[in-house]
From TrEMBL:
Similarity section: Belongs to the JMJD6 family.
InterPro entries per record: JMJD6_ArgDemeth/LysHydrox
GO BP terms: positive regulation of translational termination
A GO molecular function held by the record: 2-oxoglutarate-dependent dioxygenase activity
Organism whose genome encodes this protein: Fasciolopsis buskii
One Gene Ontology CC term in the entry: cytoplasm
Name the UniProt record assigns to this protein: JmjC domain-containing protein 4
Length: 116
């Protein structure tokens, strides 16, 4: 198993560039740097399904079609990708995280790039 380093204290831009960015080496940034990030405050919530404020995250473009991979299916050795209206994906998201719903599909909002 690959060990991914956790950066727990501030490092210089040069050190980050040399040790992680240039060699394309993954790392995890601790809260010392992520506390003020919008993504860590405005989009996350432990009380929301999946820990994400999905409605807020996708609120910039309510009529957008999302690029979604259906990971519960396989076609030609790949998961089929479909364009899905955001409203349909939000319904899926809430059903998937609701224990009483019968949602069995596993849909992945591909790369979270929902603008094509």
């Amino acid at each position: 198993m690959i060990q991914i380093p956790l950066i727990t204290h501030p490092i210089s831009h040069e050190e980050f560039y040399r040790d992680y960015l240039l060699p394309n080496r993954p790392c995890v940034l601790d809260r010392w740097i992520t506390t003020g990030w919008v993504a860590c405050n405005a989009w996350r919530s432990p009380s929301e399904p999946g820990g994400i404020k999905i409605q807020r995250l996708l609120s910039n473009a309510p009529s957008t079609k999302l690029c979604v991979a259906d990971c519960s299916r396989l076609e030609f050795d790949a998961h089929p990708v479909v364009d899905m209206p955001m409203e349909d994906y939000l319904t899926y998201w809430h059903d998937f995280h609701d224990d009483s719903a019968n949602e069995t599909r596993v849909l992945y909002l591909k790369d979270w790039h929902y603008f094509r």
